[in-house]
Amino acid sequence: MCGLGLLAATGTASAHGGSLAGGGRESLTIPTWLFLSTGGAAVGASFLLASFVTDRAFIERIHDWGRPLSGGFERILGLAGQLIGLAGLAAVFVVGFLGPTNARTNLAILLVWVGWWAGLAMTTYLVGNAWATLNPFKTLAGLLSTLDRPYPARVGSWPAVGGLLVLVWLEVVSPLADQPRLLASVVAGYAVLTLTGALVFGPDDWFAHADPVERVFRYYGRFAPIGRDEDGLRLRLPGMDLSTPRLVDGPDEVAFVVALLWVTTYDGLVTTPAWRDLTTPLVDAGVPPHLLYPVALGIGFAGFLGVYRLAVRFSRNMSDTYLSPAVLAQRFAPPLVAIAVGYHFAHYLGYFLVLAPSLAVALASPFADPATVPTVELPEWFGAVALTSVIAGHLVAIWVAHAAAYDLFPARLQAIRSQYPFIAVMVFYTMTSLWVVSQPEVALPHL
Amino acid sequence: MTDTATQTAADTAATSTDDGAAYDVPADATAYTCAYCGRPFARESWLALHRGLAHPNELDDAEIEAFRAAHDDEEESLSTFRLQALGALVLIYFGLLMIYALV
Does A245 lie at the interface with B, CB-CB under 8 angstroms? Predict the structure, then answer.
């Protein structure tokens, strides 16, 4: 089904923490070009449908709908969450270094990839951001004293952007889902780095700006029906909080959202036959493969960011507004989170369901190394769920951008027109992603 | 579907643009600037709409009249747009339908 899912079953797991690889990879009964055009047309048609909703009050009502959730039990729940997070981290270290070396039975591998990166991330956008409480690194950092150096405002969230790219690069090129010892070492390295940062700048500043993982979960959590505002927990419609002004503040945060989207594509792209065919001549000509992957990651990110900025510029011209490009870039970035959520769900729902029984077995007896572990066989039609969630992510993004445009522009036609460049990019992006999903998955070439 | 400019719509309209760096007006362009919040617009009708949406309780009679007129004009151009969008949807739908029938 996907990265670890199928491969773990055959014994050679490879790490794929991004999102596209394998989500719905299966043979198609219609020609690829028609499959791609249908996906693109669905996105374009949704935009046209959204443009029929021109009642400002109605749009506002949908996005403002919500009710507070009373929270007397919050403190106890928070404390329990912190303890669970710490226990999980301890389990990753102990079982990762001392447990069985088999990726299919090792609790550290299953806990990180199945429990945390698939399971917890899914609950983050389907229910609410529990990582904000569970995060064991934040709990530990809170226990340590801090030097409280002022966090340089100029640096902003760029360390998180770089951190996300580095994490995904590591995850793609190294056997992180294969070797428990390696995984535990990487988690230890991340812990040292994070705690040092929190020690120097204070945990609040560090986790608010520089920590990439915290930020990924925070943005995913903005999609969720349960969120946090000044008065505590609040219920709202899924995805609708993404149209809030100032959710993304500054070019660094725009870059982070774009990076989040790019890494999901990159992760799938490098396992397509087209990538192998494209890079084989380069490697034959003497380009070291270990350089190839990070360079491609960097170039692709720059390309994505460039296309997004270009779309902002076109949007500004089309809507004939005097708002600065920075304002538009910040306001139209959060809808991209909905797209990333769609891809994450497409990839990891199946992965989680297949391996959840293995995780349960490993949790019950962390040091046992059974010869066979239970997995779930997914039904034939399951691939359709993945494709549906990819499209659904795009639909939510279109709606949220529609609402943000209405909020931003006084004239409604102006608001609709401002979306043309973004819709064009989105149609193209959908088609690219569906193409990646429809490609057969090959082993990572040259490594 | 009724199109009403409510206060809730108005309150959030300008919140993300309350600092000076939020605007970027070309040197040779004409700008109609809102007297209440200072936001510049490229067209007078947009300014009229903005005043009605963002500052509904502060307007004088002439400004209210301008908002009404701009709102009516907007309705008209919106119905033209709706027709075009509907046409495009029909094209996409039947286009795909025919392609699926042929392939």
Answer: yes
